[in-house]
């Protein structure tokens, strides 16, 4: 009995000590967070979290984003090596933690602002990533004015129109970009807005002013709103929405939303000068006036300008019709009459017999057969002399980067596939040349040159298998899916 009482007494004392320790830790953490709110530039000491893979709270204030920090041992950041034709690469993968608020999906993008990476996901949630993933913050911006509540009440339910093809699946954010102004940082987002009065959607670009720590200085303001979709297929399928800011002008790609007289009845809107569908637009950010730059597009998913001033776009075609195009004012690429692809379920394209009425169409710079699901692209700069001034094109379906070597503006010498293994949605570059990729699985992938291996100049043998070049992946029917 005495031994039992002694054991019980020691147990009670141990429990009391644990409780006191827990309370003291809680008070210390509370004080640290309050101190951080008063001193937002200060980094908190490490506070252990329940999960080894979870980021930790670092800053909480009314003027700065709520930030997290990756554990220094990076247990969830595998480093891989990639072998390419000219360079060995290092690949660092940073999964964005759930605490950052962004999630996976078929949309979203990134923009680099002074080496800080602002990420937006498909639903319009924002995060900021610094130090190549060592610090990740939840960016608390006002909700995008996409009328989500009205959509939930009024919108038609999702439905499958073909195996694996579901429409009316909700909102899609297409892209994010920024413009530095005297008043602050103007953040622009392109997305699909639900119009309750019409029970459909329209491509919209909205902007919000931020300060230097990305805190909002006002509300969202619409810069552009396209025509409502007069179709049973609304939301972001084949919507385009890629942005490129050049001075006071915003270049915006607008897809045809499958209004091509094949997948749905259409007046061939991509060919109509009265419609924004299937166009690249130039929008004056001061007056909001818009002009058509090029037409005859299906689903332009990429847009970049090179150091020489040449503008290139990538776009989804039908089966075998993904394109790289050089955008020149007044060009017409012929969609939906002209395409290098075919229908998903036949060997022909039904519109090829349509009377072109004497129109002249521009040929693409390059096409991928089979289709790769081309997304955004960038001209390489400051990465390595072996790659600089090449184009890098991302792909969704092929899960690869494609390095495009050009000879002049309109001739592709070769296209090198570089297997990444993720659906690649957007791409940017840091000041040291490091490339950063945003994936549909809510990850950031950082690519840099393996300097030690390059200096040794010794290639591995046998070469690792590149799934994109060794395996002929089957075509799937995505019907212009983003």
Beta-strand proportion = 35-45%
Strand order of the largest sheet: 1-2-8-7-6-5
Tell me the distance between the termini.
73 Å
Structural class: mainly beta
Radius of gyration: 25 Å
Our count of helices gives: 4
Largest sheet: 6 strands, antiparallel
Low-pLDDT ranges = 1-62, 71-75, 471-477
Mean pLDDT: 83
Taken from the alpha-carbon principal axes, the silhouette is globular
Query: What is the helix content?
Result: 10-25%
Count of extended strands: 29
Can you offer a commentary on this structure?
The chain has helices at residues 2-38, 148-154, 451-456, 467-470, and strands at 56-59, 66-69, 79-83, 88-95, 109-113, 116-120, 126-130, 135-139, 159-162, 165-167, 173-181, 184-195, 200-210, 221-225, 240-246, 249-254, 279-284, 290-295, 299-305, 311-316, 322-326, 366-368, 374-379, 391-395, 400-406, 412-419, 424-429, 435-439, 443-449. It starts with a helix and ends in a 12-residue tail after the last helix. Helix content is 11%, strand content 36%. Strands 1-2-8-7-6-5 form a six-stranded antiparallel beta sheet. The chain has a five-stranded antiparallel beta sheet with strand order 3-4-29-28-27. It has a four-stranded antiparallel beta sheet with strand order 11-12-13-14, with helices on one face. The chain is built from four helices and 29 strands. Strand 3 and strand 4 (88-95) form a beta hairpin. By secondary structure, it is mostly beta strands. Residues 1-62, 71-75 and 471-477 have low confidence and may be disordered.
């Amino acid at each position: 009995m005495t031994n039992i009482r002694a054991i019980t007494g020691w147990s009670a004392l141990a429990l009391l000590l644990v409780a006191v320790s827990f309370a003291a830790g809680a008070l210390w953490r509370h004080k640290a967070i309050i101190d951080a709110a008063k001193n937002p530039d200060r980094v908190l000491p490490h506070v252990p979290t329940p999960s080894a893979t979870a980021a930790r709270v670092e800053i909480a204030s009314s003027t700065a984003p709520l930030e997290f920090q990756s554990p220094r041992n990076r247990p969830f950041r595998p480093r891989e090596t990639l072998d390419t034709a000219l360079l060995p690469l290092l690949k660092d993968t940073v999964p964005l933690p759930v605490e950052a608020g962004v999630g996976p999906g078929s949309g979203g993008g990134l923009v680099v602002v002074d080496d800080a990476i602002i990420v937006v996901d498909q639903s319009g949630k924002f995060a900021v990533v610094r130090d190549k993933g060592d610090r990740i913050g939840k960016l608390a911006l006002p909700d995008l004015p996409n009328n989500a509540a009205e959509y939930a009440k009024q919108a038609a339910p999702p439905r499958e129109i073909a195996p694996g093809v579901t429409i009316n699946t909700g909102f899609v954010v297409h892209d994010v970009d920024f413009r530095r102004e005297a008043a602050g940082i103007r953040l622009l987002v392109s997305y699909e807005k639900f119009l309750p009065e019409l029970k459909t959607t329209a491509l919209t670009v909205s902007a919000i002013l931020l300060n230097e720590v990305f805190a909002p200085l006002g509300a969202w303001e619409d810069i552009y709103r396209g025509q409502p979709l007069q179709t049973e297929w609304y939301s972001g399928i084949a919507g385009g929405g890629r942005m490129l800011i050049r001075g006071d002008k915003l270049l915006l790609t607008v897809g045809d939303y499958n209004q091509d007289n094949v997948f749905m009845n259409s007046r061939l809107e991509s060919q109509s000068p009265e419609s924004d569908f299937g166009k690249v637009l130039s929008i004056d950010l001061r007056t909001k006036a818009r002009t058509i730059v090029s037409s005859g597009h299906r689903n332009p998913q990429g847009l970049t300008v090179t150091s020489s001033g040449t503008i290139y776009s990538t776009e989804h075609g039908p089966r075998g019709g993904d394109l790289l195009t050089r955008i020149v004012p007044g060009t017409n690429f012929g969609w939906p009459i002209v395409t290098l692809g075919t229908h998903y379920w036949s060997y022909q394209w039904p519109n090829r017999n349509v009377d072109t009425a004497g129109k002249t169409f521009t040929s693409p710079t390059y096409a991928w057969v089979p289709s790769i699901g081309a997304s955004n692209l960038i001209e390489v700069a400051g990465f390595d002399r072996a790659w600089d001034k090449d184009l890098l094109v991302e792909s969704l379906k092929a899960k690869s980067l494609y390095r495009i070597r050009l000879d002049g503006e309109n001739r592709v010498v070769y296209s090198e596939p570089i297997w990444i293994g993720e659906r690649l949605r957007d791409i940017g570059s840091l000041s040291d040349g490091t490339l950063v990729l945003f994936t549909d699985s809510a990850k950031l992938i950082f690519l840099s040159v393996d300097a030690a291996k390059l200096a040794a100049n010794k290639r591995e043998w046998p070469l690792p298998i590149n799934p994109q070049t060794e395996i002929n992946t089957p075509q799937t029917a995505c019907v212009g899916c983003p």
